Amino acid sequence: MQSTVPHLELEAFLPYRLSVLTNTVSNAIARDYQQRFGLTIPEWRAMAVLGRFGPASAGEICDRTAMDKVTVSRANARLIARGLVKRATDRTDRRRAIVRLTRKGRSVHDRIVPVALDHERRMLAALNARECAQLDCILGKLQAGAGDETAA
Amino acid sequence: MQSTVPHLELEAFLPYRLSVLTNTVSNAIARDYQQRFGLTIPEWRAMAVLGRFGPASAGEICDRTAMDKVTVSRANARLIARGLVKRATDRTDRRRAIVRLTRKGRSVHDRIVPVALDHERRMLAALNARECAQLDCILGKLQAGAGDETAA
DNA sequence: AGTATTTCGTTTCACTCGAAACGATCGAGG
DNA sequence: CCTCGATCGTTTCGAGTGAAACGAAATACT
Q1: Which positions on chain D have an atom < 7 Å from some protein CB?
Q2: Does the N terminus or the C terminus of chain B have fewer Cβ atoms within 10 A?
Q3: CA–CA min distance A119, chain B (Å)
């Protein structure tokens, strides 16, 4: 009898499933933000940070969004060009540029927040309360473990 | 008293957490496959399908991997150039090109499978058996729901 | 003070991605 | 037969990504 042919069941392979699910979700959200507000996900993430924590430097936005500094730099440039955000050089460190929402930016931000929460709500509608709690717990552990792997 | 300022807690927002986790995992795996085997993830996914189901057309690979046809086309082109798969025009439909692993491709495939499973194993090491089962169940429900959303 | 090193953010460059256009082939309907 | 529309897969093109190089400014070192 021939030895078993090794193979991988892609549709049961966790990294693959995660990737497919994330792409499905992210693409749907990105399309929505683009159509409704003309914003990309990096742009919206930057605005979300400014909306929650107030004025911040590009580096702080990087830290809080886990986005690359190049991505943040471009997101800020486009937000400035659209008048949603304004930049001011930091008085105490002229390398830094502190960025803050304009009134217009704040208004857009406030309109997006419920849209974002609604996406999340619709997504979680597939789960009951216990499963939501389990997912929260499991994602935390996976991310913690994944972070360690990268470092090691 | 001022009305509450709306804001979104990015680090608790499910689509964001999924995206960060997936990027962490996918980037780590992609780097590993690239260094060890010179393969991208699309290339490896195509090989995984051929290794499991045998010869297939590009369209079948698309269906089984949830990848775009452009991505599959390019993956196949590179696999052919490297001699890991070979292409033959389908006798009954000359639009189709049936693709199969070469002996060399099979050998590479068989070496990657345990590497892939090991990535998954290390990832799941952060969870206990019950959590693994919960995750499996939850991912299935989320993907099913996400698929519906897209269609609707 | 004066030079070297580090840090902040932008720009450049090479790469990936997928929508749309495309050529080739097949099947259906005159 | 012979169009016409559909399907298979490739190519093109515009947009996004991140590593690396970069200029400017701050900090460390002598």
Answers
A1: 7-12, 16-20, 23-27
A2: N
A3: 8
Q: Is the CB of B57 under 7 A from strand D?
A: yes
Contact A43, A76 (CB under 8 A): no
**Cβ neighbours, 10 Å, residue B50:** 25
Number of other residues whose CB lies within 10 A of the CB of residue A50: 25
Task: Identify the residue whose tokens are 């919960």.
Answer: B134
Percent of chain B with pLDDT over 70: 95
User: Is it the case that residue A110 has pLDDT exceeding 70?
Assistant: yes
Rounded to the nearest 10 degrees, what angle do helices B14-37 and B41-53 cross at? 80
pLDDT tens-digit series, residues A29-82: 999 999 999 999 999 999 999 999 999 999 999 999 999 999 999 999 999 999
Which residue in the block uniquely carries the two structure tokens 């990096």?
A42
pLDDT at B152: 42
pLDDT, residue B150, reads 53
Parallel, antiparallel, or unpaired: how do β-strands B56-57 and A97-101 relate?
unpaired
Mean pLDDT of B136-142: 97
User: Treating both helix axes as pointing N-terminal to C-terminal, what angle do A69-81 and A41-53 enclose, rounded to 10 degrees?
Assistant: 80
Residue from the list A18, A51, A124 with its beta carbon closest to the beta carbon of B25: A18
Quick: pLDDT tens for A114-134: 999 999 999 999 999 999 999
Helix, strand, coil percentages, rounded to 5, for chain A:
70, 10, 20
CA B39 to chain centre: 13
Taking phi first (over 0 means left), then psi (-120 to 50 degrees means alpha), and beta for anything else, what does residue A66 get? Answer: left
**Mutation to test the A interface, candidates B11, B21, B39, B118, most A Cβ within 10 Å:** B21
Provide the chain A residues 81-110 that lie in CB contact (below 8 A) with chain B. Answer: 109-110
Q: Contact, A109 vs A48, CB < 8 A?
A: yes
Cα B103 to the center of its chain, rounded Å: 23
